[in-house]
Design brief:
single chain, alpha+beta, 9 helices, 11 strands, 8% strand
């Protein structure tokens, strides 16, 4: 048999109506419970009817139960009357407690509840008969004296009852004050719960922001990987350029000096590129560590989510408990109202007793009224006992709720501390990522500058190779021309008139004929002039001054005497060494 705690929001105690429920049943006899299923109600084979003590909290608190009889007729537009029989062996034995019937469906939900009743003997029930019964009493003098003594005892008992009522009134006032304090405490708890709910919503929003930040960091790391691939491609291109620059040979010493400088610069660039690779590898390791830390942060966020869900479940359970306590407070208020009515009845009885003292009424009427007063006092005592038990249970539940609230506060404080730690970790990771981004940006700028310098050096090398090829072609042309001149016969050179025009022949006859020796010297002089062209003066590439008549070694020594920046090739001759070093370090 499944039993579940009834939800106050969905209690439907009035669906199944219990009929013909008396105020009390005779113990040790079977009890027949009559109830009516309303129209549209669908019974279940697992439905049952139980006897519960008044003040029960869950469906597990039943004293005994029987399975509901299956309905032979279909429950449609009309209600159906049913009954259940409880055997005398399983009935309660306590005659001071009140009980009630409850109809529980197969899902553990309460579908109906009866009015309270108790189990008493017929003698006790006869004692509770009203004062309206007609009796014929014959009394004697002894009975009159005895009635007088009983009247005095009744008066003392009435005084005692008054004192007891006053004491009960004071106790009731104290309980009302405690109920008011409980209400205020409940309101404070509701405020705290609302604050806790707001804190949970804020934590959820911050968790979403952390997720978005983590996604952005992942995208940035992917972008960094793409940039590293581009840099590796650029490095391969630089290696190809280096191979091409190494393939260029046959230049002059000046070109070789420039080429050596370019090679040194390229080597420096290689070293710097290697350093950048090492820094990038270190940065990739740091990024991997950051990714692991981010994964740990995600795990912590999932844990925080689970804790938040548990807190929400606790909040819902506390809300249900609050609603149940409010229902119990309403019940206490109704009981206080009944106590007020009992007080009024007691006052009325005391007034009647005083009137009867002045008016000598019959002793039997006093006995009957005394019995009614005693029964009413007994009922008030029972009600007060039940109220005390209910107040104790409410106090205990309030203490349990206080403990639960303290636990919720501690858990929320722990969650807030964990969240602060996660925020600090995420801020540190963001700072580290920013530093990595700055380092990568600086490395990209340095690589771009190096690539620009390599392109400039490559252009210079190409220009030098073109100049060398041009010079070689010029030298080859001069050599071929000089060899042609050497192969010309002297006869052709001795009769120049054959090659001259007609206008020039007259002048050749006027001139004196030259000697063959002079003619040959003149020819070889021309050949030597043609074979040895005039050398151009060497120019310094830094100060752009020409130096005619010096060797390339001397020009190289002159160029080395200049202070030249290895990056931008700027000349710093008339500048202090510290200024020159600062300029070089600025690159």
């Amino acid at each position: 048999m499944e039993a579940a705690t009834p939800d106050p929001a969905v209690r439907t105690y009035t669906q199944v109506v219990f009929t013909d429920v008396p105020h009390s049943y005779t113990p040790a006899t079977p009890v027949t419970c009559c109830y009516t299923l309303p129209a549209g109600f669908e019974p279940h084979p697992r439905d049952w009817v139980g006897i519960f003590q008044v003040g029960w909290s869950t469906t597990k608190d039943y004293h005994t139960f029987v399975w509901a009889e299956p309905c032979s007729e279909e429950v449609g537009l009309q209600s159906v009357a049913m009954s259940a029989i409880f055997k005398e062996y399983y009935l309660p034995k306590d005659e001071t407690e009140f009980y009630q019937f409850c109809y529980i469906d197969g899902g553990g939900q309460v579908r109906g509840a009866s009015t309270p009743f108790c189990f008493r003997e017929l003698v006790e029930m006869s004692e509770e008969s009203g004062p309206d019964d007609d009796l014929l009493v014959i009394t004697t003098q002894e009975q009159v004296e005895q009635s007088v003594r009983e009247k005095a005892e009744l008066m003392r008992e009435v005084d005692r009852v008054r004192e007891e009522n006053e004491r009960l009134n004071s106790v009731l006032q104290e309980e009302e004050q405690e109920a008011a304090t409980l209400k205020e405490h409940q309101k404070e708890k509701e405020k705290e719960m609302s604050e806790l709910v707001e804190e949970l919503h804020r934590l959820k929003e911050e968790n979403e922001n952390l997720k978005s930040n983590l996604e952005e960091q992942r995208q940035e790391t992917q972008h960094l990987k793409d940039e590293l691939e581009v840099q590796t491609a650029k490095q391969q291109l630089n290696e190809q350029i280096q191979q091409q620059s190494q393939s260029v040979n046959g230049a002059s010493r000046q070109d070789e000096a420039k080429y050596e400088r370019a090679v040194t610069k390229i080597n420096q660039l290689k070293e710097e590129r290697q350093q950048l690779r090492t820094t990038i590898s270190v940065q990739s390791d740091e990024i991997a560590k950051l990714n692991s830390k981010l994964r740990e942060g995600e795990r912590e966020l999932f844990k925080l989510r689970d804790n938040a869900q548990l807190l929400q479940v606790d909040l819902q359970s506390s809300k249900k408990e609050k609603e149940r306590l409010s229902a119990e407070l309403q019940l206490l208020q109704s009981l206080t109202h009944t106590l007020d009515e009992v007080k009024l009845e007691n006052r009325e009885l005391s007034r009647r007793l005083t009137q009867e003292e002045t008016q000598t009424s019959s002793d039997e009427d006093l006995k009957v009224e005394y019995q009614t007063v005693l029964s009413q006092l007994e009922g008030t005592r029972v009600q007060l006992a039940t109220e005390r038990e209910e107040s104790k249970t409410t106090h205990q539940r309030a203490e349990v709720l206080d403990r639960e609230m303290q636990q919720l506060k501690t858990t929320l404080e722990e969650v807030a501390a964990l969240y602060k730690q996660e925020q600090q970790k995420s801020s540190k990771q963001e700072l580290q990522l920013r530093e990595v981004h700055k380092m990568v940006a600086d490395s990209n700028i340095i690589i771009e500058e190096k690539e620009h310098m390599v392109s400039l050096v490559q252009r210079e090398v190409e220009e030098l190779t073109r100049e060398n090829q041009k010079l070689r072609s010029d030298i080859e042309g001069l050599r071929s021309h000089s060899s042609d001149l050497k192969t010309v016969p002297l006869a052709d050179l001795g009769h120049p008139d054959a090659a001259r025009p007609a206008g020039a022949t007259s002048r050749s006859h006027r001139e004196q004929p030259r000697e063959p020796a002079q003619l040959s010297e003149h020819i070889y002089d021309n050949i030597s002039r043609i074979s040895e062209p005039e050398e151009e003066p060497l120019v310094c590439h830094h100060c752009l001054e020409s130096f005619p008549g010096i060797t390339p070694q001397e020009l190289e020594q002159h160029e080395q005497s200049h202070q030249v920046c290895p990056f931008c090739l700027m000349v710093f001759d008339n500048v202090e060494q510290s200024v020159f070093e600062d300029h070089v370090y600025s690159h």
